[in-house]
Write a structure and sequence with these properties.
This protein is an alpha/beta fold. The protein is built from eleven helices and eight strands.
Length: 314
């Protein structure tokens, strides 16, 4: 994986595991986006009539990157996924209680606690170990319909649709498993997803991750790798998130948005005159900052796809 350094001309330091996670996510996303194109997008449903001030129509070098948990969807995807697996008897009641507590805390607090998220990922990895990727993808489709479809924020969905209507790409960037994120992206009609990549051999999960969870700095690395591969101009791109943990990703683009922000991100956004929208109470979103004039796009990936892309360009 060290050979993939050509993908990430970084301006700030990042751990090797963050870089690995970001590049793996970019590869997996590129691969999954092709699958989304092949399958075709499902109807996204009715969205809230919110008209954003951008994107710039026809700007092919712009892209939009959306965090998932509490930005696009209420709650955390990993917890909803765990609930669905319990229903299918993948694990016992004790593990369900832990998932339920973590989800309740996450929704009430409205912030991402690193330890809770790590515990949830460790639990999920142990649960899926030995199962086939294709099996979990099929189950994930059912779980989306059961637990996630009704939790999409209409306001955020409208923002994403505005980018799509402008002819631009829109990508989810999330710590959730890339397979789960890809299903959500396809159901919403988005371009694709960057997510945490779980190692698999011959289509079977090993119970390990490639690098680390796509969280914090790793998200920025994934976005940077995708932008480099697709020749996006990050200064013309937009990013959306609710969490201060995503400040590295938000700071990477020219048009950052704080969506349903936690207290730390709200302060950070106001200090830097970033735009802010809050859909949690139904009130009209507050807006901060000068008008943005950027569009959308993004990309996703995993290791094999990035290597293939590099070879094709050479």
């Amino acid at each position: 994986m060290a050979a993939l350094g050509w993908l990430t001309p970084r301006k700030r330091s990042a751990t090797a595991r963050s870089v690995l996670a970001g590049e793996a996510a970019a590869e997996a996303g590129l691969k999954s986006s092709q699958e989304i194109d092949d399958i075709g997008a499902a109807p996204a449903g009715t969205a809230e009539p919110v008209v954003p001030d951008f994107p710039v129509i026809g700007d092919a070098r712009a892209a939009a990157f959306f965090d998932l948990d509490n930005t696009v969807m209420q709650g955390a995807a990993i917890f909803h996924f765990g609930r669905g697996l319990y229903k299918r008897k993948f694990f016992q009641r004790r593990e369900l209680a832990r998932f339920a507590w973590q989800q309740a805390w996450f929704r009430l607090a409205g912030v991402e606690d690193p330890q809770h998220m790590q515990d949830a990922r460790d639990s999920a990895l142990s649960i899926v170990k030995g199962h086939r990727v294709s099996e979990l993808m099929s189950i994930g489709e059912e779980i989306y319909d059961e637990y996630m479809a009704d939790r999409i924020w209409p306001g955020t969905r409208t923002l994403a649709q505005a980018h799509l209507d402008a002819g631009q790409q829109v990508w989810l960037v999330t710590a959730a498993p890339v397979e789960t994120a890809t299903i959500i992206a396809r159901r919403l009609g988005l371009t694709g997803a960057l997510g945490t990549v779980a190692e698999s051999i011959d289509g079977v999960y090993t119970g390990k991750l490639v690098g680390e969870p796509l969280h914090g700095p790793a998200k920025a690395e994934a976005v940077r790798a995708l932008a480099t591969a697709e020749d996006f101009d990050l200064a013309r791109c937009a990013a959306y998130s609710d969490s201060h943990n995503d400040i590295p990703m938000l700071s990477l683009v020219g048009h950052p948005y704080a969506i349903n922000p936690d207290s730390k991100l709200r302060r950070h956004a106001k200090d830097r005159e970033w735009r802010l929208r809050d859909y949690r109470t139904g009130r009209k979103a507050a807006k901060v900052g000068i008008p943005a004039a950027a569009g959308v796009g993004a990309l996703a990936g995993g290791t094999a796809a990035a290597v293939a892309l590099h070879r094709r360009r050479r």
